Amino acid sequence: MAMYKKRIKAPKQPSEPALVFIKNCSYEGAGAFETLCQNWKIPYWIVDLSLGDPLPQLNELRAVVILGGPASANDESPEILAQLDFIKELNANDLPILGICLGMQLLAKANGAKVQKHALREVGILAPDNRPYGVLPSSDASRDALFVGYDKVFAANRVGVNPYIPLFQLHGETILAHDTIQLLASGIFCTHQIIKTANRAWGIQGHVEIDADLLEALQKEDTFLGNLDRISLSRQFFAMKNEYLLAATMFFGNFLIAAGYTIV
Fold this sequence. Notes:
Elements: E1 18-23, H1 32-40, E2 44-48, E3 61-66, H2 78-92, E4 97-100, H3 102-110, E5 115-124, E6 134-137, H4 150-153, E7 158-159, E8 162-163, E9 165-166, E10 169-175, E11 182-186, E12 194-198, E13 201-204, H5 212-221, H6 223-226, H7 230-258
Parallel strand pairs: 1-2, 1-3, 3-4, 4-13
Antiparallel strand pairs: 5-10, 6-9, 6-11, 7-8, 11-12, 12-13
């Protein structure tokens, strides 16, 4: 895969079906995913629901990434209710979906799972045991398209049979087990970290798209993240940034390949 490059201005809506990033709030963007799209020359456009943008039509879509935000999947706002219906349409038409944080919880709820407050609000880089937040893939992950190559990419992080994949966290809710949800990776403190709900529909609870710019934006806007020491968090991030980038490149690259794109 090509080298990571600095983000440039996002292109306007392509004239043919393309990848769409759906933002639930203006400051919570696609981070490393957007930069990787530009690097890999993947056409994309952005829908910002917080600015009143309408959800796209199915014929405009090749794949969808639903990003995070401070709302709850249990809210009854027009934006949340519309996304739940939208996800059901995407599933019915086998359109590839990747949900991040709130996006994952919306994906789960649209498929019948319950979303509720979690006993531990996971915030930032280090967990209560002072180790980086991360996930352990399940036995099913080795056969899943989203995890292709993970055992080699994160071989140095091996814990037992499977490698440990670090993920930045920022959430206070979680989903409950449901027969429509396949668990692909678990966390130590929050079980449902990476899920699959359909042939090409995945959710990731952690912010695998995190980069320095997104971290700065989240620090300014999110109360819980803003309460952490800024200098310490910055040091922790730069100690982890290479592993975070590996995770973003692997998961997002695999998602795009599953959606029919060629990554070079």
